């Protein structure tokens, strides 16, 4: 482990199970979670962060007149920690152009679908309603296009006949907790980059679905 670990700020709005997976991984990886930011004071992820003595910031978006005012304050708070990477882990806010440009190439998100399919919310139910046989999750760089940035890694899950949306959510979470720490570790080790709106690993351009062959689990 190098002496200068990659500083990561994690943004959440809720339970924070992905945050927990990242906290656990950070104990033996080349990154440190410098702060956790939530737009909701009741996010359980804040409890997880405090239990590990990670600084927390609550910025309630409802107290700001508009998205730009909120994002401007968000940038100020985040920059105090001088992060190399921002990790969106269930952060339920659309980020402004200003925010994305400020951190260009330094923000990643995890989205519960096989992008470019099923952008937006309620993905598990929509996948079931469409009669899909395979579902999945994507880690991607964040760009101004909502859920549209270049994919770094995807994991798939097989949809069984009896699966409900909440069963799918659980299956997806199990995959998320594996792949998100893996991607953050790669970034911390300087192996991952966004260039020309594409994702690169070890200086190689990644295919549209990211760096791993997809085999349904
Ligand atoms: C995850 O399913 C992630 O894909 C989505 O939000 C959810 C966050 O879950 N972006 P948690 O708060 O990490 O448990």
Question: What proportion strand?
Answer: 15-25%
CATH C-level label of the largest domain? Alpha Beta
Shape: globular
Domain module count? 2
| Low-pLDDT residue spans | none
Can you name the CATH architecture of the largest domain?
Answer: 3-Layer(aba) Sandwich
First-to-last CA distance: 31 Å
Portion of residues within helices? 25-40%
Number of strands: 10
| Content-based structural category | alpha/beta
CATH superfamily of the largest domain: Formyl transferase, N-terminal domain
- The strands making up the biggest β-sheet line up spatially as 3-2-1-4-5-6-7
Number of helices: 6
Largest sheet: 7 strands, mixed
Order of helices and strands: EHEHEHEHEHEEHEEE
Q: In the CATH scheme, what's the topology name of the largest domain?
A: Rossmann fold
If you average the pLDDT, what whole number results? 96
Rg of Cα set: 17 Å
Task: List each distinct ligand once.
Answer: 5-O-phosphono-beta-D-ribofuranosylamine
Any overview of this molecule?
The chain is of the alpha/beta class and 217 residues long. It folds into two domains: 1-103, 3-Layer(aba) Sandwich (Rossmann fold); 111-174 and 196-217, Rossmann fold (3-Layer(aba) Sandwich). 31% of the residues lie in helices and 24% in strands. A seven-stranded mixed β-sheet has the order 3-2-1-4-5-6-7, with helices on one face. A three-stranded antiparallel β-sheet has the order 8-9-10. The longest helix is centred in the last third of the chain and has 24 residues, at 165-188. It is globular. Bound molecules: 5-O-phosphono-beta-D-ribofuranosylamine (GRF). Residues 14-19, 89-90, 110-112, 176 line the site of 5-O-phosphono-beta-D-ribofuranosylamine. 5-O-phosphono-beta-D-ribofuranosylamine is lined by residues 14-19, 89-90, 110-112, 176.
